[in-house]
Write a structure and sequence with these properties.
Blueprint (H helix, E strand, L loop, with lengths): L1 E2 L1 H8 L6 E5 L26 E6 L5 H8 L1 H5 L4 E6 L3 H9 L5 E5 H8 L7 E10 L3 E5 L14 E4 L4 H13 L6 E4 L2 H7 L7 E5 L2 H6 L3 E5 H6 L5 E7 H6 L1 H20 L1 H12 L3 H8 L2 E2 L3 H4 L2 H5 L1 H15 L9 H6 L4 H8 L1
């Protein structure tokens, strides 16, 4: 696989890229009649800690919780800081710099963080969504209708993301992983450079994906790579030290996320309104994006196919594939991948 000099430089610099740090008491909330819903569990006014949470502009329960101010309602004496990140790579950097407690990142980024050379102590505490066609490979040239036909082309993707992992899987399956040039760009940069940068294709998520589809077409999706044995998820990662010292907080946090998943199932219009406020797009666009993901409640997540067992297996498998592609330097022990999954909070919430 060929990479541009700019891509290698971007991948090698360990810089914390955060934007739009938003404190509790946000001005970007939706203003519906139930803008401040009741806490789904008993309010805990004994927790007085400060929690630094990283979010991404992805339509799932995390943004519903943020918009509703639910953590602030459930934990009135806590200090909750929300910071926006553009991709899992920057979330990894924040964990490495000890400047973040919880953050949304993809399963590929978690596998990378656990593996050499990073070897971070990170736990996966929640599955925000199972990624489907919400992440797709878009191509400019209408004559290119398959992944194999991208031989010799330049493809943009945010490195260390689930899209990066899905792209590598698709290229490997097509036998052209050494015959394309990958360019490491964040979603906003992909959208900005789509017309003029010489990019032939991009594997990315919404809202950038929808912009690219206006002048390009999809040749494969994360659903396709999942069917081929390479599933991807958006996860909530947490520093291991934070998890070990904040079990009670994590139960409340998980209850809030479980409430949001229920809203996505039973009140999709209300949830979409909240997501539209956070994403800055029309509600109808949000509803279209939601179809690209699958959302799981706490009871489902606590079971063996997910946090109960399988996610650790999937993280190890992801790391093994990344190693084969030269994307990491070495594997951790199997116990580290299985031990990186924290099902306790989901199990506790589902039992109530």
């Amino acid at each position: 696989m060929k990479r541009s000099i700019a891509a290698l430089a971007a991948a090698g610099v360990l810089t914390l890229v955060m934007s739009g740090c938003v404190q509790s008491g946000r001005s970007d909330q939706s203003r519906g009649s139930d803008a401040k819903p009741a806490c789904p569990v008993a309010v805990d006014d004994s927790y007085t800690g400060t929690v630094r949470i990283g979010y991404q502009q992805i339509p799932n329960g995390d943004l519903v919780v943020k918009d509703a101010g639910l953590l602030e309602t459930c934990l009135p004496k806590a200090t909750i800081t929300w910071s926006k990140f553009d991709s899992g790579a920057t979330v990894i950097q924040a964990f490495g710099a000890n400047s973040l407690d919880l953050g949304l990142l993809g399963s590929a980024a978690v596998a990378r963080a656990l593996s050499a050379p990073l070897n971070l102590d990170v736990k996966a505490v929640w599955i925000h969504d199972v990624i489907g066609p919400a992440e797709s490979l878009v191509v400019k040239d209408p004559a290119i209708t398959s992944v194999a036909a991208l031989r010799g082309k330049k493809i943009a993707v945010p490195f260390a993301s689930t899209s990066h992992y899905s792209l590598l899987a698709a290229l490997s399956a097509a036998g052209i992983e050494h015959d394309v040039t990958l360019v490491n760009l964040q979603p906003d940069a992909i959208a900005a450079g789509w017309k003029d940068s010489g990019i032939d294709a991009a594997f990315v998520w919404d809202p950038t994906l929808s912009q690219l589809k206006k002048t390009g077409h999809v040749v494969t999706t994360a659903s396709d790579t999942a069917k081929a044995g390479k599933p991807t998820f958006d996860l909530e990662g947490a520093r291991g030290g934070f998890v070990s010292g904040n079990a009670k907080f994590l139960e409340v946090w998980t209850a809030a996320q479980n409430w949001a998943v229920q809203q996505l199932s039973t009140d999709q219009q209300g949830a979409s309104t909240r997501l539209a406020a956070q994403l800055g797009i029309p509600v109808d666009d949000v509803r279209a994006q939601l179809a690209g993901y699958t959302y799981l409640d706490a009871a489902t997540q606590a079971g063996a196919p997910y946090l109960g067992k399988q996610l650790g297996v999937d993280l190890q498998s992801t790391a093994q594939f990344l190693l084969s592609q030269g994307e990491i330097q070495g594997l951790a022990t199997p116990e580290k991948y299985s031990g990186a999954v924290y099902p306790q909070a989901a199990a506790a919430v589902s039992a109530k």
